[in-house]
Amino acid sequence: MHKITLATLLAALLGNALPALAEIKVGVIASSTGPTAAVGIPQKNTAALLPAEIAGQKVEYIVLDDASDPTHAVTNVKKLLSEHKVDALIGPTTTPAALAMLDFVAEAKTPLLTTVGSSAIILPLDDKKKWVFKTTQNDDLISEAVLAHMSAAGIKTLGFIGFNDPYGENWFKVFTPLAEKAGIRIVASERYNRTDSSVTPQVLKLISAKPDAVFVAATGGPAVLPQAGLLEKGYKGRVYQTHGVATQDFIRLGGKNVEGTLMAGGPMLVVDDLADSNPIKPVAQHYIKTYEARFGAGSVSTFGANTWDAGLLLQKAVPEALKKAKPGTPEFRIALRDALEKSKEVVGAQGVFNMSAGNHNGMDQRARVMMTVKGGKWTLVKD
Question: What pLDDT, in 10s, does the model give residues 20-62?
């Protein structure tokens, strides 16, 4: 009896000493507090809806809040890479945070599916940015649609106001030459901070330049500020926004001040207006249904859809990576990056993705539609 007990005990101890089956770990960084929480909260919430298993492999999502602060984002990414040894990352919420993370992602050779707006995070595509993939529309794709609408409306002069950070600066860098090519002249250019409580001086300068329209390069709640200021000071021209305001929260915060806003953005926001033949429509409807079942009717946001689409890309790429290596290894992270780069016709809630070695966004014209705020909701602008 004594020998059997020892043998049983030894077997049990040896069994416990064996390594557990490798589990895929995905780090998620979102601004669920701070000035950009309206964008980050739906991203954090969506992480809870992503599949707990892919290709028979368990997936753990480790979600951290960066409080809308790039410094916190860097702290978070260091923790996810060194302590948790994640196989992939999703996020963060803001462009400054994403840019601050680049060195660490590249050094760790860990793929990042970023949900930020600016194309600066993936362009120019170099050895550092080759680890980054982007699930939001690039600035030039949105700019082309906005400028086409402006040209058709007879707009010749434009006022520009954007964030005084990489988001606003990259928009100005991308938008200005495209506007000039379209025959639209920028007659005033202003900046403001995400945390500013007033932009009156900037608004007065814009109005004094007498532009036919104003373009606002900002995101979330802070994007309301210049538009409300323009209306208050009696500006009568059109106001265009970037897809950084593609949410009902923008309308809720802006109210009557944002009625008539024009924007090119992801089709999910006007999903009911889409043709039934549009491949994005059923995917977007499924995401909306899934999200609202968990978080309540009317709570869904296109910003959360960017995280959802990151999850869809991983669901396609993980089975390919598993053929080459096990989770938790450098080889798996490299294989996952390579598989993401080969993503073809992956239909998401925001667009259709066709990645390549030279394109880590992969979205085309199907990922944008022109819309306007009408009667307190986003409505498709029909040709």
Answer: 457 999 999 999 999 889 899 999 999 999 999 999 999 999 9
Residue 132 pairs in a beta bridge with 112
Cβ count near 226 (within 10 Å):
27
Both tokens of 335, joined, read 């294989």
Structure tokens at 106: 């590249």
Contacts for 162 with CB less than 8 Å, ≥ 6 apart = 168, 169, 171, 172, 190, 191, 192, 216, 217, 218
Residue type, 370: M
150's CB contacts (< 8 A; 6+ apart) are 158, 182, 184, 213, 240
Burial group, residue 266, by CB count within 10 angstroms (0-12, 13-18, 19+) = buried
Residue 112 has φ and ψ, to the nearest 5°, of -115, 120
Tokens of 197: 């409580």
User: How far is Cα 88 from Cα 252, in angstroms, rounded to an integer?
Assistant: 34
Length of the chain: 383
Report d(CA 145, CA 264) in Å as an integer. Answer: 6
Read off the pLDDT of residues 315-366 as tens digits, 9 standing for 90 and up: 999 999 999 999 999 999 999 999 999 999 999 999 999 999 999 999 999 9
Q: Number of C-alpha atoms within 13 angstroms, CB side, residue 106? A: 14
From CA 376, how far away is CA 239, in angstroms rounded? 16
Q: Strand (E) positions, the chain?
A: 24-30, 53-54, 57-65, 88-90, 112-114, 132-134, 157-163, 185-192, 213-217, 238-241, 262-265, 346-347, 352-353, 369-374, 377-380
Which among 350, 287, 306 has a CA at the least distance from the CA of 98? 306
Kindly tell me if the per-residue pLDDT of 166 is higher than 70: yes
User: What is the pTM assigned to this prediction?
Assistant: 0.87
Q: Phi and psi dihedrals of 126, rounded to 5?
A: -115, -170
Q: Are 370 and 152 in contact (CB under 8 A)?
A: no
